[in-house]
Amino acid sequence: MNQDKNPLVSIIVITYNSAKFVLETLESAKAQTYQNIELIISDDCSSDNTIEICKEWLKENKDRFVNTELITVGKNTGIPANCNRGVKASKGEWIKLIAGDDLIDETLVSEYLKKISILGDNFILCSNYRIIDESSRKIGAVNLKKTKFFHQLKNSEEQFQMALRISGTIPPLTAFYSREMYDTVGGFDERFKLLEDYPFFLKLNQKGFYAILIEKELASYRKSSTSVTAAGENRIFHPIFLQTFRFQAMYCKNHVSSIEALGFIFNELIHRFFQQKNLNNKKFTKLYWILFRLNPYIVKRFFLGCSNRVYYQNLI
To answer: Where is the Glycosyltransferase 2-like domain (predicted)?
Structure first.
């Protein structure tokens, strides 16, 4: 990879009905202390005035960036396809995607490039982040150092093995990676319209790219009623979980034991059943948990745990 000390970085803002917050997001990109940046905005057929807001902002601020582009489409295609359009339109050596309601700190790009200059360019970088409300007030924080994924796992294979079983190990909000990495795994999987991050980062781990945590809060995740991950008041699970289990049943099952693979398939069937039969409602929570606990892998772990307790008790 090119070792340019002043590489072009592509900040790609992904929007869909983001009119309420997109100006803050764009201003956070503009405020970066690192200068060699292009800005791509990729919109997924917003029905509000997101596109008009972005057009006006770009007219006034395009000179801040090496290049700017606003991409629009005639129909909604899902998050992975929107991300792919943005990345393919960009030219930067390094890629930073951000949702049109979140914020990045002004030093995020410079902090990441500083780390790359020390460690090399074969790593996925991410950081801790804060949680903000609709008024941009801090209401919480996420410290990833406390997670096993960043605290204990020593190489990409260990991270891959854990990510096969647990989604959401690398936060897309703060993730920073090279175009070479993106090309290596073929971009985002467009079969899962709400699930851009999990398949992508899992495959990067599988290809040998190790994720490193910078222990600073360098971005803000906005918790609002319009965010993709906002759960409905009456739902047992968000549709994103159904897509997660579907991906595990299709892909992850090929890299785990047969009993774990059966567990992935069982999870996907249970969630699909609840979704198709309109049972994804909190009044069916008890039924959901009863069926969920019949997962063959969970049953095996329960009985294995019981047998281990008996074994160790007999040793005392």
So the answer is: 10-181
Task: Count how many Cα atoms sit within 13 Å of the Cα of residue 17 in the half-sphere of its side chain.
Answer: 9
Whether 295 has a pLDDT exceeding 50, the answer reads yes
Q: Tell me the C-alpha distance between 191 and 61, whole Å.
A: 35
Check residue 225 and give its pLDDT: 73
Domain-wise residue ranges, the chain: 9-222, 239-315
pLDDT for the residue numbered 297: 77
| Total-model pTM | 0.90
Of 36, 28, 32, nearest to 6 (Cα)? 36
Whether the predicted pLDDT of 304 surpasses 60: no
Whether 262 and 252 have beta carbons less than 8 Å apart is answered as: no
Token pair for 198: 């999990």
CATH topology of domain 9-222: Spore Coat Polysaccharide Biosynthesis Protein SpsA; Chain A (3.90.550)
Query: What average pLDDT does the structure give for the chain?
Result: 92
Rounded to the nearest 10°, the torsion over CA 222, 227, 228, 234 is 120
